[in-house]
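Hi Y.,

Following your request, here is the sequence exactly as I used it, all 155 residues.
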Amino acid sequence: MTDQKPPRLAGDERAVLMALLQFQRDSFIRKVTGVGDAEAAESPVGSGTSLLWLTNHLGDAETTWVLRRFAGRSEAETARPPATSVKEAVARYRAVSEEIDTILGAASLDDLCPPFDDGPPVDVRWIVGHLLEETARHAGHADILRELVDGDTGR
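Below is the corresponding structure, written out as tokens. Let me know if you'd prefer a different format.
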């Protein structure tokens, strides 16, 4: 896999945050693309984490933070069963990401997320930052898992 470098850009805060989030999403998808369904579902680590689980999890994380917590949609409105193949999981993740980008594009970074637990309020800026770090963290996990599966490396 050819190594891809993150975009270097100067711009407003939203443009930079969203470009970096998209880079991490794309990096993650590159890590799972080309892996067979059986290999993607297997876990070579004690925690049980697999490439397929990570792909479903990232879509679920964006759904939870933006669709449910920020936009106030119900679980019934946003429920998507976990995909069982790499192709389906990537399509599911991409569809969620597109919906998230539409919602985030219409929001101000200063918009507050409605309260959802006993924690302090967060704004859209924090949510995008959290999704960025969550995606980057799991892209790193995917790097290691992919290397264990077939030796492929690179972002």
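The chain has one domain: 13-150.

Thanks again,
Q.
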